[in-house]
Prior knowledge:
The chain has helices at residues 7-28, 32-52, 127-132, 137-154, 158-163, 165-180, 199-241, 243-259, 270-275, 280-295, 308-311; strands spanning 53-56, 60-66, 69-74, 77-80, 86-93, 97-107, 113-124, 185-196. By secondary structure, the protein is an alpha+beta fold. The N and C termini lie far apart (109 Å). The relative contact order is 0.06.
Amino acid sequence: MKNSNALPILIFLLLLGVGLGFAYTSLALGDPHRSAVIAFSSAAAALIVSYSIKIANQWERVVVLRLGRFHALKGPGLFLIIPIVDVIAYWIDIRVITTAFKAEKTLTKDTVPVDVDAVLFWKVIDPKKAALDVADYASAINWAAQTALRDVIGKTLLSDMLEGREKISGELRRIIDIRTEPWGINVISVEVKDVLIPAGLEDAMSMQAQAERERQARVILGDSERQIAEKFGEAAKTYADNPTAFHLRAMNMLYEGLKKESTTIVIVPSTAVETMQLGGLAGATALSACLGQKAAPESAVDPWSGPPSSKLSSTPQSKP
Length: 320
């Protein structure tokens, strides 16, 4: 990365202005030859000095080569180089850098083609190695990350890849860090963003998940029915040992059924009426009529339907 700063330009203009001022003074004294030499010399000196002054930012390190060999690692701040003799080979950024990479149509261990997108977080910890030991460290890191991702996908099952992204990210970080350590680069972390599977397989997995949910729902419903049956069995044993409780429960159920709606027709077998000891069929009919009158006001009685006692009635079966 090439650095740009206004200070060298300012120094160049300042030295050039001073040199031109001396040249103008010599010209005013009647010595044009000396004036031309001063002007040319000041311009050359200003150019050399401005080229020698370099400034690196806080996050930059500069690799300087002298006559083709490594000379020094400069920065941050102001530093000088010898023009023509010294050459700046690299401006290296030592901040954390993010690189996105992906693997397309890569087969998993169970031969399922997937597309995986990931992000690599890395930084240069040794600028000298990054500049001298690899031609283009940014491109090399990208290719190393892609090959490592394909290698990990080929050794992982699809189910493990979908559920254990953290494990895959840790394995990728370990592999990439081993490959890039000789280049003076440290891998901070690797994050798997997305795993894309074929649409047909996605539909099949969705149907499988739906079927599994339905199976669990049926199992839960069956277990609930079993628990209800057990509770009913316990209640039946209680009523069998206590006929009075059974009669009271039956009467309560009849009362609850009659009091909700005045137009409800309740059919009670004659055997049930005698069991509940309601005084025979006449007593049950009177109870129904009484409850119907309580539930519906007189203004709401249908004149075409007759008296309330005819609405709520029971149809007993004739006893053999």
